[in-house]
Amino acid sequence: EPEVTQTPSHQVTQMGQEVILRCVPISNHLYFYWYRQILGQKVEFLVSFYNNEISEKSEIFDDQFSVERPDGSNFTLKIRSTKLEDSAMYFCASSRDPIKSPLHFGNGTRLTVT
Amino acid sequence: GNSVTQMEGPVTLSEEAFLTINCTYTATGYPSLFWYVQYPGEGLQLLLKATKADDKGSNKGFEATYRKETTSFHLEKGSVQVSDSAVYFCALSLTSGGSYIPTFGRGTSLIVHP
């Protein structure tokens, strides 16, 4: 069964550095999402992406965050200047139809900001 | 806005006990409802879903019925196993002003002892 894959599985970075988290969604899916989860708690929506543009974003997704689909297969989340509070698990998800079909999640990237 | 409320965890049970995890929702419309499960170190994966009122979703012995009158989607299993230990997330999906933002509850941790 097709999977969403995320790399790296763990990223350690210093405060103020830029990080890029990478995702390869399932190939025939059209809707893409980033969520984050702090310390195994609530799954927080960051951003959704459809038709090569952001369709919705949360308050968390400020100017430090950006997303891109550079080549039709990868879907990236960039954090320009990381803060300690950005430490979390970041999950990419994709869906064929976000209303009736479920989200398919990757295994996540654990970001640690020191 | 749309929201999902789950019972606080952790829920601790002995093997073969009956499980109920409560979930209620608030939505401006008729959402699709989902239960996801997250095993340690992994991403979320779909457990079951229901897309309209009175539908019952079921998978791996788990069941949940979409109750529009009580805006609920409680998860049940008649006899839990140690391998069911995980975090369970209730979620809804509904179009909102042309965008699609699946919304998750806070998650309920289930611990099953032998």
Question: How are the SSEs ordered, and which strands pair?
Answer:
The complex is a heterodimer of chains A (114) and B (114).
Chain A: E1 5-7, E2 10-13, E3 19-24, E4 31-37, E5 43-50, E6 53-57, E7 65-68, E8 75-79, E9 88-95, E10 104-105, E11 109-113
Parallel strand pairs in A: 2-11
Antiparallel strand pairs in A: 1-3, 3-8, 4-5, 4-9, 5-6, 7-8, 9-10, 9-11
Chain B: E1 3-6, E2 11-14, E3 19-21, E4 23-26, E5 32-38, E6 44-50, E7 56-59, E8 62-65, E9 75-77, E10 86-93, E11 95-96, E12 99-100, E13 103-104, E14 108-113
Parallel strand pairs in B: 2-14
Antiparallel strand pairs in B: 1-4, 3-9, 5-6, 5-10, 7-8, 8-9, 10-13, 10-14, 11-12
Kindly list the characteristics that best describe this protein.
heterodimer, A: 114 residues, mainly beta, four-stranded antiparallel beta sheet, 11 strands, B: 114 residues, six-stranded mixed beta sheet, 14 strands, 53% strand, globular
What is the terminal-to-terminal distance of chain A?
37 Å
Judging from the principal axes of the Cα atoms, what is the shape of chain A? globular
Question: SSE order of chain A, as H and E?
Answer: EEEEEEEEEEE
**β-strand number of chain B:** 14
Mean pLDDT of chain A: 92
Estimated helix fraction of chain B: under 10%
Largest sheet of chain B: 6 strands, mixed
Strand content of chain B: over 45%
Question: Quick one: which chains have the greatest interface?
Answer: A-B, 26 and 25 residues
Summed up, the helix count of chain B is 0
Using the CA coordinates, give the radius of gyration of chain A.
13 Å
Helix/strand order of chain B, N-terminal first: EEEEEEEEEEEEEE
Classification by helices and strands of chain B: mainly beta
How would you sum up the major sheet of chain A? 7 strands, mixed
Residue-averaged pLDDT of chain B, rounded?
Answer: 92
The low-pLDDT segments of chain A are none
Q: What is the rounded Rg of chain B?
A: 14 Å
Helix % of chain A is under 10%
Contiguous runs where pLDDT drops below 50 for at least 5 residues of chain B: none
User: What's the β-strand tally of chain A?
Assistant: 11
| Quaternary class | heterodimer
